[in-house]
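Teaching note: in complex prediction, the entire set of molecules is handled at once rather than each chain in isolation. The prompt given to students was simply: 'Predict the structure of this complex.' The entities are:
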Amino acid sequence: MNKPFQKIYFDPYIFFSLFLLSILGLFFLFSASNSDISIVSKQFVYVVAGFILMILVSQPDPAIFRGMSGLFLIFSLLLLGITYLFGPEINGAQRWVRIGPLSFQSSELLKLSVPIFLANFLFDKKLPIQRREILISLAIIFGCFFFVFRQPDLGTALIIAFSGLLVLFLSGLSWGFIGGSLILFIISSPFIWDILLQPFQRQRVATFFNPESDPFGASWNIIQSKVAIGSGGLFGKGFGEGSQTQLNFLPETETDFIFSVIGEEFGFLGVLLLLSIYLFLLLRCFYLALSARDRFCRLVIGGLSLTFAINLIINLCMVVGLLPVVGMPLPFISKGGSSLMSLFLAFGIIISMGTHKKFLPQ
Amino acid sequence: MIFEERQIEKNNFSLRATLLFSLIILGLMAVLIKVFSLQVSGYTDYQLAALKNKNYAVPVQSLRGEIFDRKGGVLVKNQPTFDLITRPNLIADIDSFLDEIGPVILLSEAEKFRYKKLQKEKASVNKELVLKKDLSTEEIARFNVKSFNFQNTFIAKRYRRISDYPEIFSHVLGYTSRTDDDYKSMLEIPRSHWKDVELSYAHGLIKGRTGLEEVYDEYLSGKHGQRVYEMNANGQLVQPLSFVEPVKGSDLYTNLDIEAQKSAAEYIGNRKGAVVAIDLDSGGINVLYSSPAYSINKLSNGMSDIEFQDLINDPDKPFFNRAIQGRYPPASTIKPAIGMYGLSKNIVNWNFEIKDPGFFIVPETGRVFRGWLKGGHGKVDMHKAFLVSSNAYFFSLAYQADILELSDHLFSLGFGQKVCLDCFDEDQVFVPTPEWKYSMMNAGWVKGDTVNLGIGQGYLAVTPMQLANYTAILATKGQFFEPSLVIFGNQEKSLKIWQDDGFDHSDWIKMHAALLGVIESDYGTARSIRDLKEFQVAGKSGTAELVSLDSKEAYLEIRASELLRDHSIIIAFGPMPNPRYAVSVVIENGESGGAVAGPVAIEVLKSLINE
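The expected output is the structure of the full assembly:
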C-alpha cells in the first residue's frame, strides 16, 4: 500500500447521482435561459471541470486535508480580504474576486474551510467538548459569518455559520449548551432584527409573512414562482413550454428560481424525480459518514453533506414560499461556476473521507 | 483516545447525524408536500393565474349595421377608407423615417407632432400606430410604388360612417361619435386593454348619439370580437393566440322614403320648418324632416371645433329637430278635432248654423275674438265652417265646451303625449288644462282660454309629429297604427282604434267630405293647391299667430320683423277617397298656411303616391 496511485478513490453512487443532476441541470438551464446555448455550453465547461476537480480532490488521504486545514482557512480568509479591498461592487455588494480571466465568489470557499478546520480542531477533543474549545469554535464561526455578512451576503453567511455549527454539534456539543444558546438566540432576536439586518432584508421577511401586501414589488418573485410551479400540474407543461419561464414572468430563472422552471415544465413528477436524486445522494453521504474510518472523516463528511443539504432545503423552501427570499442557488442545477466548483470540491473531499479506509503508514 | 471513548464518540456521532439527516428528510418531505399542494390541489387556480399573466385579450371592433329606406335605398353605410399604419418598434430613427415618407404622403406638422409623441410608448410594446388617416388615392398609389422602402409601414382599411344624404336625413338618422364606455359591453376584457382595441372605424370606438343611431344603438352595434395575444412580462406582445371574429350589427330597415324626404327638403328650401309623413297602412314614418339641417357625415367622422361651435351658435338652431321637438300652435288645423268634440258631445250637429259676423264676443266678459276675414262668412253650418275656416263657428263651439272634457278629447287624439314609437328625444308637449294653467301661471282658467283653443291658439302647442299622427287618425277614420320609423311586424305593432259613441261612421264620411272640400272645392281656404296634383287630397290649413292682435293693420306693422310673422301650417291626406298617406307641414314665419305649407305637403304626397 505504499504506492498511493495504485488505486483510484471513487464512489460510484455519488458519481452517478452528480452525473444525473449535472445532465438534468444543463437541460433545465437551456430552457430557463430561453434556449441560450452559450450559457449552457459555458456551464457545461464548469461541469466537466468540476468532475475533474472532484476526482482529483478525492485521491489524497484525509490526513493531508487535515494537515492543510489551517492553511486552507487562512487562504479562504485572505481571498475574502482581497475581495473586500479590491473586489468590484455589483448590485451593492462586494462578493467577487478576479484572478486573471476567472472571477470567483470568495465566500464559497469558507463553506468548506470552516467545517474542515473545526473538524480538525475538535476531532481529538474529549467528550463533552469543553467551554474553551466551544468559545474558540464559536469565535471562528461568527468571525467568518461576520466577514461574509458584511459583503453583504446574508445567505452565504448563514450557510457558513451553519457549516461550523453543524460540526460543533456533531462533535458532541452538550445538550445543555445547545438549549441555553437557543434561549439566548430567541431573546436576542429583536436585537438582531433591528441592528444587524439591512432594510431590504427586513422587507423580504415582512413580504414573506404577508405576500399579498405588495404584489408588484417585493413579493412579485415569490408569487410568480408559486404560479409557475402550481401551473405545472402533475406532468408539467413540457420542455421549453412553460409560459411563466419563457415569457419572463418568473425572475432569476437561471439561478435562484430554476426549481420553479422545473416545476412548471416537468410538473410534480419532475420534482419527485429531482428530489429523489438529492435524497439518494444525501443517504449515501449519511452512510459514508457512519462508516468513515475516524472521527475527523465523520465530522467532515457530516459537516459538508449537511451544509449541502441545508443549502438545498433553503433554496427549495424559498421558491415554494416556505421561507423568505434569500439568494441561494439550487445545488448542481443553478447557473454559476463558483458555487458549482465549491460543490464538486466538497464532494471530492467527501469521497476522499469516505473511501480511504486504511490509515497511511506513519 | 481509548477504545471505549471512541465507541462512545462514534455512537454519539451516529445519534446526532441520524437526527440531523432525519430533519433534512423532513425538510424535503415538507417541500414535496408544499409542491403537491401547489401543483395538484391548487392546480386550477395557478393555471388560471398563469394564463392571466400571459394572455392579453384585445377587443376587435365590430361594424355597425347599415340603415335602409323602405325601398332598400342605403341611408347610412360603412364606407371603407385607407389609413397608413406603422409599427414604431421596427423604426430605428423616427425623424429620418418621417423625412423619407414625407414626399409619399402629405403630413401636417400636427400629424408629425402627434406621431412623435405617441411612437415611443407604442414602440416599447410592439403595437401599431396610425400615421395618417384617410389616404387619398394618389397617396395610396405613391405608397404602393415605394412600399418596399417602408417595411415597417402598411395601409389598412378603416371604415367611416357615411350617408349619401347627410343633410336631409340628419335629424332622423342622427350621428355617431367616440365613446369611452364600450368596455362595459365586454366584461371579459379588462378596461385597460381597450386602449389597444383593433379598430374597424377610422374614428375609433363609436356610439350612436342622436336619431336612429342612438335609439337603435344596441341593435346596430353588433358584438365586438377579440384577439388574444401572448404577452411577456415586459408587456410586449409575442404572438397572436386566438381570434374571435366580431359580429356585424344588424341592419335597420326603416319606413323612410328617400324621394319623399328629398321633396320635403327641396320644397321647404332654406326656410325653417318641418315635415312629417305617415304611411296609413302601417303607421310607418316616410318623411321626418327638419330644416335647417346639418351634415351627419362631418359630425360622425370628426368635425373641427370651430364648425361645431358655429352649428351650436347658429340662431336658426340646426340641431333642433323641429319635427318632433318644435312646439307650434296648431291654429286652424285643430278645427276638425274641435268639430269632432262638438259632434260627439251633441253641442252641434252637421246642420247647426250660426251667423258669422267675423268675430265672437264672450258674453260674460265682453272679450272680442276675431276671425281671419273682416266682416265674416255670413251663414255657416259645420261643413262650410271647415271649408272657409270660420273662426266664429269654432269660437262659439268652444265657448260651450267643458275644458276638462275637451282636453281629454285632445289627449285621445295624441296631443300632449309621445306618439312616435322610436323617435329620438320626442317632445310630448302638453294639453292645457285649468290645473296646468294654475301651476304654470298661478292664474285661474277663464272661459276665453277655452274659446281660444277652438281655433288652435292660446295655450295649445303641438309638434309636427303629433299633427301628423292626428292627421293619420282623421284619415283612417280612427283605425290607425302608432307611427314608427323602423318597420315593425304585426306582432310588435297592432291596429289602434279611436272611437266615440257620439261620433259614428256617417260623421267620419261627412268629416272627410268637409276636409276634401278645404282643398278641392271652390270655397276651400286651401284651394290654391288644388291644381298642383292629379289626385284628390283632403286637409286643413292653418296660420299660427305668434302675437295676438286685434286687426290686420296692426299685423302689417309687425310683419316687418320676419321672426314675428305667422307660422304656416297644413295637415293633409290622400289620395281620396282611399287615403294612403298623411302629412303635416309647418313652415316658420311662412304666413298663410294653405299657400305656403300647402305646396310642400302636396309635393311630398306626390312623391309618396306616384311610386
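Point out the following to students. The longest helix of chain B spans residues 3-41. Chain B has two domains: 57-253, 258-313+323-609.
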